[in-house]
Specification:
Number of helices: 11
CATH topology of the domain at 14-193 and 229-258 and 297-312: Rossmann fold
Low-confidence stretches: 336-342
Structural class: alpha/beta
Strand order of the largest sheet: 3-2-1-4-5-6-10
Shape: globular
Strand content: 15-25%
Largest sheet: 7 strands, parallel
Order of helices and strands: EHEEHEHHEHEEHEEHEEHEHHH
Mean pLDDT: 92
Number of strands: 12
Distance between the termini: 27 Å
CATH architecture of the domain at 14-193 and 229-258 and 297-312: 3-Layer(aba) Sandwich
């Protein structure tokens, strides 16, 4: 589902650092960059709760340098950022529920560590071009739809607050230190290599596993919340565009999907694509209901007009490709008896 673009030649021979580089989006990005001729270093702690998985880099073990390190380690960051041309900052704790249960770990990873990364760059490589992966969660419960970049920022959970702080650090360093930083606010990203052991990364992951294992897809409440979705290849293209476009520094932009569905409609589409399955509605767990944001879908016009980016992969096609991937590789992702890095 990839396509060729003339601007991709800008990555040939460049040195690229990806934090969270063995994770879902990071590994997909690293593989794409390697195919474009870049020299990629993937940094990942490989802590099982955060989605890093060695199988995500299968076939590229000899072409991508994997550095097992934690973004909470300032000394390591100071060395890793040196001489890099691009930094894609994707490392993070993604679970909204975990952030409420253990807010201080979320603070360390999504807020304090982002400041460490920026300081490492400012002191050791201030010319590096940085793209930071933020989240729709910073908007909280939408006051209007679609949500554009002028929408008030009002996170509904600890994760959203810390991601917002991390984002603001990146924008501040662009303003004050003239560092080339750009922020993309991602919506529901899905596709091959996403975490499917549980719903820590995205509920779509556990749905893919349940379909293949012939278990029903569970929907909280009535499932009428509206969402938009981006296939991972489309997100990777947006990240690459954000890195090379000359007029994005110091700004934050929404990504979004072209199709908006209720969660129930999405579940039934997934069942149809799978060729079978069941959907069941269950009561909303109180701990999740209190941080649920209701309907959300994004206005991504600003980024689209500047870069020409559009989500190209249709939802049905993306779901089909994702299911095909896990039918072939599922044992590397949901074998609960094996380590996440198997």
């Amino acid at each position: 589902m990839r396509r060729s673009n003339h601007w991709e030649a800008q990555f040939a021979g460049k040195r690229v650092l990806i934090t969270g580089g063995a994770g879902f989006i990071g590994a997909t990005l690293g593989i794409r960059l390697t195919d474009l001729g870049a020299h990629v270093v993937a940094v990942d702690s490989l802590i099982s709760e955060y989605g890093g998985n060695l199988h995500n880099l299968a076939g590229y073990e000899d072409r991508i340098t994997l550095n097992i390190a934690d973004v909470r380690d300032q000394f390591g960051l100071n060395i890793l950022v040196r001489d890099q041309d691009y930094l894609f900052n994707l490392a993070g704790q993604t679970s909204h529920l975990d952030s409420m249960i253990d807010p201080f770990t979320d603070l360390e990873i999504n807020c304090r560590s982002q400041l460490k990364i920026l300081e490492a760059c400012r002191q050791n490589n201030p010319g590096v071009r940085i793209v930071f992966a933020s989240t729709r969660q910073i908007y909280g419960r939408p006051r209007y739809l679609p949500v554009d970049e002028q929408h008030p920022l009002n996170p509904a959970d600890v994760n959203g607050i810390n991601k917002l702080a991390g984002e603001m650090y990146h924008l501040l360093y662009a303003q004050v230190y003239h560092m080339a930083t750009c922020v993309l606010r991602l919506t529901n990203t899905y596709g091959p290599r996403m975490r499917v052991k549980d719903a820590r990364q995205t509920f779509l992951g556990i749905w893919m596993r349940k379909l293949i294992e012939q278990q029903p897809l569970q929907i909280y409440g009535e499932g009428q919340q509206l969402r938009d979705f981006n296939y991972v290849d489309d997100v990777v293209e947006a990240l690459l565009l954000a890195a090379v476009h000359p007029n994005l520094s110091g700004q934050a932009y929404n990504l979004g999907g072209g199709e908006v569905l209720s969660l129930e409609a999405l579940a039934r589409l997934a069942v149809e694509v799978n060729g079978g399955g069941a959907v069941e509605k269950i009561p909303f767990p109180p701990e999740r209901k209190v941080i649920d944001i209701g309907d959300y879908y994004a206005n991504y016009t600003a980024f689209s007009q500047l870069t020409g980016w559009q989500p190209r992969v249709k939802l049905a096609a993306g779901l089909r490709a994702t299911l095909d991937y896990y039918r072939e590789h599922g044992q590397h992702y949901w074998n609960d008896d094996a380590p996440a890095v198997s």
